[in-house]
Amino acid sequence: MPRELRRLPANHAAAALVLPLLLLAVRAPLRTSARPAPGPDYLRRGWLRLLAEGEGCAPCRPEECAAPRGCLAGRVLDACGCCWECANLEGQLCDLDPSAHFYGHCGEQLECQLDSGSDLSPGEVPEPLCVCSSQRPLCGSDGRTYAQICRLQEVARARPDANLTVVHPGPCESEPQIVSQPHDVWNVTGQDVIFGCEVFAYPMASIEWRKDGLDIQLPGDDPHISVQFRGGPQRFEVTGWLQIQAVRPSDEGTYRCLARNALGQAEASATLTVLTPDQLNSTGIPQLRSWNMIPEEEVDSEENEDYY
Ligand SMILES: *[C@@H]1O[C@H](CO)[C@@H](O)[C@H](O)[C@H]1NC(C)=O
Ligand SMILES: *[C@@H]1O[C@H](CO)[C@@H](O)[C@H](O)[C@H]1NC(C)=O
Ligand SMILES: *[C@@H]1O[C@H](CO)[C@@H](O)[C@H](O)[C@H]1NC(C)=O
């Protein structure tokens, strides 16, 4: 449709305005019947905006167009089919109808889809959003894994001089990287403590736990220690937990999470401090403050960005 628009002589600008409206009017019912309740609200807003901009479609003089810059999703033609403008990014609102120009159009490799999302409250109308046409991870020439092509292209456009390209589909082979490391913990005898360790690697890593000074892999034969692993929470990650039930002073020490795959290994450690009730009392700490959850969160989120 934008192509037809462009071919019309300039003095038919009024006709060019009416034509898409007629087509929209014809197409809208088809669309509503074919799709589950798309709520033609945004279509209507699109028409209103077309009307408002109607007199705006002057004869096209490409040399007068402002060149859009920093378009992370590429460029698309504007409502008049004349000048380039930035396309919409993944997750941004878009026009389901290709002839509408209200929210704008999605960039390369993106499709405008109704957000049939799970968290719609009853009666809420799903909104059309730009969605990446592929959800396959890729390995970029910067050695980083991208969740899908749209993410990689965004980064490539943001930093053109980095010459970022796709090396191969699937994640980059990578030695283990500890995405979230265990935190130092203290507690009073008799309480339970848990250390966690979240690892990204491809091929997937195995995790083991050790205590400094002990030459065994935990839990060994110690019935008050248990070890658990689970895949996730992100793709190509595995998370391990070490739980010590009813801690005793002899459990004090440094615990180490070791992650390994064919390419290498990584480790992170944290200390456990065990106070007897007497010791706790003499510190004068009014209640058990939780130190063990505090500041490393910021570090974690930075590391997360490396992957997704
Ligand atoms: C990107 O490619 C250009 C041209 O091929 C080259 O001059 C430049 O050094 C490259 N930059 C990097 C970071 O490889
Ligand atoms: C001590 O352990 C208990 C239960 O295991 C927990 O609720 C509490 O937050 C812990 N205290 C500290 C300081 O970590
Ligand atoms: C803590 O110390 C206070 C006095 O300093 C004492 O009265 C109290 O019994 C102590 N509590 C414990 C659990 O030792």
From TrEMBL:
A GO cellular component entry from the record: extracellular space
Xref: InterPro entries: Growth_fac_rcpt_cys_sf, Ig-like_dom, Ig-like_dom_sf, Ig-like_fold, Ig_I-set, Ig_sub, Ig_sub2, IGFBP-like
Listed Pfam families: I-set, IGFBP, Kazal_2
Domain of life: Eukaryota
Keyword annotations of the record: Disulfide bond, Immunoglobulin domain, Secreted, Signal
Listed GO biological process terms: extracellular matrix organization; regulation of cell growth; regulation of signal transduction
Descriptive protein name: Kazal-type serine peptidase inhibitor domain 1
Compartments, record wording: Secreted
Residue ranges annotated for the Kazal-like domain, each copy included: 107-174
rRNA-binding in keyword set: no
Location of the IGFBP N-terminal domain: 53-133
Signal sequence extent: 1-34
Domain Ig-like, residue spans: 176-273
Organism annotation: Jaculus jaculus (Lesser Egyptian jerboa)
GO-annotated molecular function: insulin-like growth factor binding
